[in-house]
Amino acid sequence: MQRDEELQTRVWTLRSSGQTIPRDLLLSESRKARANQTTGEWQLGKSITRKDFLTVLQQRVPLKQLELKSAKYPSIIRMVRGNPSSFEIGLSLRKDAYISHASAAFVHGLSDSLAVLYINREQTPKDQSLELTQAGIDAAFSRSPRESNLRYRSSDPRDAMEYVLVNGKSTDCLGVVWVNKPDIGRIQVTNVARTLVDLTVRPQYGGGVRTVLKAFKKARERGMVKTEEIAQILRGVEHSYPYHQAVGFLMDRAGFSKNDTKIFKTAGMNFDFYLEQKMEKPHYDAEWRVYYPFGLDRPVQD
């Protein structure tokens, strides 16, 4: 039995051999604080400071301290054993979180590189009813997109990942699935359909529209998603803005058939819409009533 079980703390371990255990980690500061009253075999006494407890813990259990630093927020401390993946470390930062956006695209093989890990924890349900007007849409998309300031980097020099915490729209984890991969671990991540929709809604979390279009193209070429799956996600998430037009446009440009994309036209084409915010000299697609960035007319290379 592990010493951490004797301490009645929630320390999870990782196997150094590369095999992983679900949510293998990690002892948060709050859990460590609760553990500092433990007595028994370790003879810690009835009172011990957190600093002293950590010293004893690291002497008795092969753990190392990992600090995740932010430019705008206090650091987050984790105690780890073995070699957890960046995904497992990231998911330890938020309870009930899952991997999303560009990071989910990487997990599914829709992108080839990963420099930022997006960890999404949904907000509580809110009344987001919005009466759309063309003037309101134009004003909203003339502004720069908002991005999370909850950005962290590890104190481990071998870990170049940037960890970004996202407060996503409440969806009751629609389209979130478990995957288990040797180099990643067993994690929760948005499925392909949900990932494509999320990237359409927040292209700034996906490397920009051109990169998002590449993800749509790969999903089509590999037969990874069906039109109805994407349509179901759009219906379930219930975005206020007409993102179905943006999805239809991207699917069209990615080579999906007209039969595949026609379902998105039935949802209504009542407004002009935008693929990105604050575009300069955008082009306009009359079929989908969508403004898109200059340069997207050129063929997308894999």
Helical run tally = 11
Strand order across the largest sheet = 2-1-5-6-4-3
Oligomer: single chain
Share in β-strands: 15-25%
What is the terminal-to-terminal distance?
50 Å
Query: Residue ranges: pLDDT <50 for 5 or more in a row?
Result: 1-39
The coarse overall form would be: elongated
* Sheet with most strands: 6 strands, mixed
User: What is the chain-wise order of helices and strands?
Assistant: HHHEEHEHEHEEEEHHHHHEEE
Helix content: 25-40%
Pairing-aware structural class of the strands and helices? alpha+beta
Mean pLDDT: 86
Beta strands, count: 11
Report the radius of gyration as a whole number of Å.
23 Å
Fold and architecture overview:
The chain is 32% helix and 17% strand. Strand 5 and strand 6 (162-168) form a beta hairpin. The protein is elongated. With 302 residues, the protein is α+β, with helices and mostly antiparallel strands. The chain contains eleven helices and eleven strands. It has helices at residues 3-6, 29-35, 50-60, 86-91, 101-107, 134-141, 192-201, 209-221, 227-237, 243-253, 258-265, and strands at residues 64-69, 76-80, 98-99, 116-122, 151-154, 162-168, 176-181, 185-190, 273-274, 283-285, 290-292. Strands 2-1-5-6-4-3 form a six-stranded mixed beta sheet. A three-stranded mixed beta sheet has the order 9-11-10. Strands 7-8 form a two-stranded antiparallel ribbon. Helix 7 (192-201) packs antiparallel against helix 8 (209-221), helix 7 crosses helix 10 (243-253) and helix 10 packs antiparallel against helix 11 (258-265). The chain has a domain at 1-65.
